[in-house]
Amino acid sequence: MTVSAEQRACAQDLLDFIDASPSPWHAVTSAEQRLLAAGFSHLEESARWPLETAGRYYVVRGGSALIAFVIGQRPLPESGFRIVGAHTDSPGLRLKPHAAHACEGHVRLGVEVYGGPILATFADRDLSLAGRVNLRQGKSFESRLLRFDTPLVRLPNLAIHMNREVNEQGLKLNRQNELPLLLGLSDPKLGANHQFMAHVAGALGVAEQDILNSEFNVYDTQQGTFWGAQQEFISDSQLDNLASCHATLTALIACKQPPATALCALFDHEEVGSGSAAGAGGSFVSDVMGRIEAAQSLDIEEHHRSIASSFFISADMAHAYHPNFPASYEPDHKVMVNAGPVIKTNANQRYATSSDTAARFLLLCESAGVPCQQYAHRSDLGCGSTIGPIVAARLGVPAIDVGAPMWAMHSIRESAGVLDHGHMIAVLQEAFSSQN
């Protein structure tokens, strides 16, 4: 397999984006930096929006969700919206509000499991913390991002001599007692909470008493890398779903003067059901679309025409065939890494794909010159879901679920194909630019 310099550079840009985004709040900041560099203007939800044809804008909600859009050349009732959605969050561990506690001479940090991670993959990794801290500002507060770049915490395995069946039974961790992360040795004179908060305050250069609260994501400090005989694969944390966020952003930024209004929606909280103001189950995307319509003075009839003319692509990662576990896959729907974007279908609407929207995406792939695959889950296994059905139901727009194939979904270290990422960017750019 030949990987061109352009394809490798595209994949490296993805790895750089992920490595700069160890939490959903950092991911949105990374996205903002790219949008501002590309000439997008920042909008505040609390201000009036002076929108112009061909204008490029973005808005942030809650620090962890972002919507960017380019106003199309054609009237909305005729062309509608071209929407691609992804999510900034990944399954893993989050610190509890009062995380630090002393335990037999050690300081541990209590965590909650966020979403559905493969917990065993967090053991014996060089872990650290990234998130945001709210600081007192008189009678108000300001939010500051904080990332500890070097390994700060760890989840050491129990030796096999005390867990003889681990290779046969798998690593099983009690979420309350066995998941707290080891921070250091305790100092009885200081107290565990003071030891941790003093570390946070020192990193921010503020007084400890100015810290109101914080929320931290646990992340792996190992950077993304290429691997394989031809270096045709990539490995990193949070490929699910920062790879889709990066592909969507890159495609939108490259879309200069689209005929229809192109909109990229990066939601939070997909891994826990999307039921939040920053999630796909909230009003964020419909609020933004409504304000774009209001700026063009659309009446209710024109609103419904614009919705009927719209198309939504839910971009989330797909399960690539794993040759070591053939029994886990539907035999006639094996999708391969580096073989192109995947259309995901489920009869019970865990995915939003219909035959009509699948046909539409297949034609987009043809126009973009990229291959396409189709995936269905085994009938005797439960199927995960995405933002696709949620957004499709809220907006009433035709929708499809697609994604790049990957291995080890929800591991702290996931893998995917170099070629697939470039293919995904190409077809999403085609979708944003499409006349249909």
Q: Kindly give the count of domains.
A: 2
Cα separation of the termini: 34 Å
User: What's the overall average pLDDT, rounded?
Assistant: 96
CATH class of the largest domain: Alpha Beta
CATH superfamily of the largest domain: Zn peptidases
Enumerate the spans where pLDDT stays under 50 for 5 or more consecutive residues.
Answer: none
Number of strands: 20
From the 3D coordinates, which CATH architecture of the largest domain would you assign? 3-Layer(aba) Sandwich
Beta fraction of the residues? 25-35%
Name the helicity range: 25-40%
In which order are the strands of the major sheet placed? 1-2-3-13-4-14-18-16-17
Count of alpha and pi helical runs: 11
* Structural shape: globular
Question: Structural class of the secondary structure composition?
Answer: alpha/beta
Supply Rg. Answer: 23 Å
The CATH topology assignment of the largest domain is Aminopeptidase
Largest sheet: 9 strands, mixed
